[in-house]
Design goal:
Shape: globular
Number of helices: 11
CATH superfamily of the largest domain: NAD(P)-binding Rossmann-like Domain
Oligomer: single chain
CATH class of the largest domain: Alpha Beta
Distance between the termini: 37 Å
Number of strands: 13
Strand order of the largest sheet: 3-2-1-4-5-6-11
CATH topology of the largest domain: Rossmann fold
Bound molecules: uridine-diphosphate-N-acetylglucosamine
Largest sheet: 7 strands, parallel
Order of helices and strands: EHEHEHEHHEHEEHEEEHEEHEHH
Radius of gyration: 19 Å
Number of domains: 2
Length: 337
């Protein structure tokens, strides 16, 4: 079986490529390296012992996709990660986000239909829920107005896939990730933010290693037990494994509809302070942090109802918070070396 992984050099993409290879799949990666490097491909090879086939180009270029599919007529399924994901940047440059995230998906769906590739796993986000009315949040919770153009692109992409799969010979599984953190046990792949990180874990590890002076904790006056925001943090390797399970569900014709949706979380919420405490406990490093004002656009609390993913998809997150923070730290130390 040959699987195309778009964005396979990225954070979640690279971990998923490893899991696929370890299950015996051949993997072809398309990535424009806009937020990753070629080194990642070689790191994947070091872990799995197999160099994935790699094509560097932009999925917004319809001609290049056409050429790719005419030279590669043996693809059995696609996992589509390639997208821009920085929430703040999307507020400043919305058109860049709408253009990239929507055009690449539309191009891919068009060629899937033309060359008759049936199965698609799509990388979505809990951001589609906004601040849900009920917690834990279930897959059938309504979309709220998106907080950012990035979040809006995920909502629109989901709707495009749902619509295309209802009329074309395409079956899709949409995976809504909560907050993926951590790194591979080997510390050979992990999250590699360009510039100043926006997300919590890379900011924590970069502060602890001395690249940043202190972590700003955005708000301690939320309506939560310790006043800081609550998220459902999930180990990136658990997320990667869910993609393989989803793909196999599609390949084995186990789906109940042309487009299924699953939450990928642990079902447990942790506050920013709890994450910091876990990090300090497992690493023995004291973190320098200060409370500052709330960050615009942050929601107060969200965590997943994972019942549907556990029962129907047959997948469950296995790794706990301490494993997540420790693996993120090991990765940061490896980067320094
Ligand atoms: C956001 C998006 C998510 C997206 C992810 C990737 C929403 C609701 N979520 O997650 O869909 O996949 O970005 O970019 O839009 N924090 C600090 N200090 C920091 C950084 C973060 O206190 O320096 C806090 C935040 O206020 C938040 C928590 O840590 O409470 C997690 O933040 P972050 O890692 O940025 O993820 P989200 O904003 O939850």
């Amino acid at each position: 079986m040959k699987i195309l992984v778009t964005g396979g050099a990225g954070y979640i993409g690279s971990h998923t490529v490893v899991e696929l290879q370890q299950k015996g799949y051949d993997v072809v990666i398309i990535d424009n390296l806009s937020n990753s490097t070629k080194e990642v491909i070689y790191s994947i090879e070091k872990i799995s012992g197999k160099l994935p086939e790699f094509h560097q180009f932009d999925l917004c270029d319809e001609n290049l996709i056409g050429k790719f599919f005419s030279n590669n007529n043996d693809i059995d399924g696609i996992i589509h990660f390639a997208a821009f994901k920085a929430v703040g940047e999307s507020v400043e440059q919305p058109l860049k986000y709408y253009h990239n995230n929507l055009t690449s998906l539309i191009n891919l769906l068009k060629y899937m239909n033309e060359v008759q590739i049936k199965n698609l796993v799509f990388s979505s986000s809990c951001t589609v829920y906004g601040q849900p009315d009920m917690l834990p949040v279930k897959e059938d919770a309504p979309f709220k107005k998106a907080f950012s153009p990035y979040g809006h692109t995920k909502q629109i992409c989901e709707q495009i896939i749902e619509c295309a799969s209802s009329v074309h010979n395409i079956k899709a599984i949409l995976l809504r990730y909560f907050n993926p953190i951590g790194a591979h046990d080997s510390s050979l792949i992990g999250e590699l933010p360009l510039g100043i990180p926006n997300n919590l874990l890379p900011f924590i590890t970069q502060t602890a290693i001395g690249k940043r002076d202190y972590l700003k904790v955005f708000g301690n006056d939320y309506d939560t037990p310790d006043g800081t925001c609550i998220r459902d943090y999930i180990h990136v390797v658990d997320i990667a494994k869910a993609h393989v399970v989803a793909l196999e569900r599609l390949q084995n014709n186990k789906t109940n509809s042309s487009c299924e949706v699953f939450n990928l979380g642990t079902g447990k919420g942790f506050s920013v302070l709890e994450v910091i405490k876990s990090f300090e406990k497992v690493t023995g490093v004291k973190l320098n942090y200060k409370f500052v004002d709330r960050r615009h656009g942050d929601i107060e609390k969200v965590w997943a109802d994972t019942t549907f993913a556990n029962k129907v998809l047959g997948w469950k997150a296995e790794k706990g918070l301490d494993e997540m923070t420790l693996s993120a730290w090991n990765w940061e130390k490896k980067l320094k070396k």
